[in-house]
Design a protein that fits this description.
Dehydroquinate synthase-like, alpha domain; 14 helices; alpha/beta; binds zinc ion; glycerol-1-phosphate dehydrogenase [NAD(P)+] activity; metal-binding; 2 domains; Rossmann fold; two-stranded antiparallel ribbon; phospholipid metabolism; 360 residues
Length: 360
């Protein structure tokens, strides 16, 4: 028995616990869509399914998924028509409540809508991306456009990911390049996470850090292989996006893939809505945050160029002054997430960085 009458000594029990939600089935490759019936059967999720897709993505892949499942399941569909996002989510939610499980077949907007709807009515969600444009295809994170810019939420993580490389390779190359840039941003996001750990004591996960960093590394090494409309490129990028999503699942947050460069991108969503894609903006931001970390920012810029992703705000139609504003506004977005942009950036230094690092 302890002689500690004033309760000064800590009880030495191990009381740490963690809950990680990972996808159970991941099928990536040529004609992977044909495997959907087998995936649904394997997961035994019920006899009725709601298939969410977009106007175009329904033609690209949604109808094929509907036909593949029609014989064995009670199939209903929900097509996103470009209406007000929150209202659309509510409608998708009502439709999901009538089904045993939900499949999202489409790009970012479709996947995010299906993910949130499934989460709100407690249904499992299968992600069938038609483009590899960001790491939301395999993570629980969803982003919703609002009047104040995009809001990132934790929703239903996919129980399965079925990524058909033939479908993904046929999407516009800009989307794939943006997905690559989102992965490259892991380099700076992980540095920001370690910085926050050293400075504020924020806990880090070594596994999540290593996986996120390695994923970005693989993409750096294969930057030469990323070509428009090549199935091999779609394969490399999709696998990397899944692996990034897994790193986030291990961490229990988006921290391994989202640092200052993501806050810069969110700030741009507010200041210059509709200009750049999420991943494109993150890649551009990563050039500055890598420079501030003292790392090889030129390697980031060169890889982005090879892949065909933009490296300057001008390339996405954003002027330098707006980029400066976004760098300064970044710290007000999720202020609890400490990054290198919180370390004394002034309007003058931001202006100098934009001038110096975003030259053609
Ligand atoms: Zn991202």
């Amino acid at each position: 028995m302890s002689a500690d009458r004033i309760n000064l000594l800590r009880t030495k029990v191990f009381d740490k616990s963690k809950w990680m939600q990972l996808p159970r089935d991941v099928v990536v490759g040529h004609d992977a869509i044909e495997q959907i019936p087998a995936v649904c059967e394997d997961l035994a999720l019920g006899d009725s399914v709601l298939i969410v897709s977009g106007k175009q993505t329904r033609d690209v892949a949604g109808k094929r998924v509907e036909a593949l499942l029609a014989g064995s399941y009670d199939v209903t569909t929900f097509t996103i028509d470009g209406g007000e996002p929150v209202e659309t989510i509510r409608k998708a939610e009502a439709a999901s409540a009538e089904a045993g499980f939900v499949i999202g077949v489409g790009g970012g907007r479709v996947i995010d809508t299906a993910k949130i709807a499934a989460y709100n009515v407690d249904r499992h969600f299968i992600s069938v991306p038609t483009a590899a444009s960001h790491d939301g295809i395999a993570s629980s994170r969803a982003s919703v456009p609002t009047a104040d810019g995009n809001v990132s939420l934790a929703a239903e993580p996919p129980i399965a990911v079925v990524a058909d490389t033939a479908v993904i390779a046929s999407a516009p190359h800009r989307l794939l390049a943006s997905g690559c840039a989102d992965i490259i941003a892991n380099c700076t996001a992980t540095l920001d996470w370690e910085l926050a750990h050293r400075l504020t004591g924020e806990p880090v996960s070594e596994y999540a850090l290593t996986l996120a960093r390695m994923t970005a590394e693989i993409l750096f090494q294969n930057a030469d292989l990323i070509k428009p409309h090549s199935e091999e490129s779609a394969w490399i990028v999709t696998k990397a996006l899944v692996s990034s999503g897994v790193a986030m699942s291990i961490a229990g947050s988006s921290r391994p893939g989202s640092g200052g460069e993501h806050k810069f991108s969110h700030a741009l969503d507010r200041l210059a809505p509709g200009k750049g894609l999420h991943g494109e903006q993150c890649g551009i931001g990563a050039i500055i945050t890598m420079y501030l970390h003292g790392g090889d920012w030129e390697a980031i810029r060169d890889s982005l160029r090879k892949i065909g992703a933009p490296t300057t705000p001008a390339e996405i139609g954003v002027d330098d002054e707006t980029a400066v504003e976004a760098l300064l506004a970044a710290r007000k977005i999720r202020p609890e997430r400490f990054t290198i942009l919180d370390m004394g950036l002034t309007p003058e230094s931001a202006r100098n960085l934009v001038k110096m690092l975003y030259r053609e």
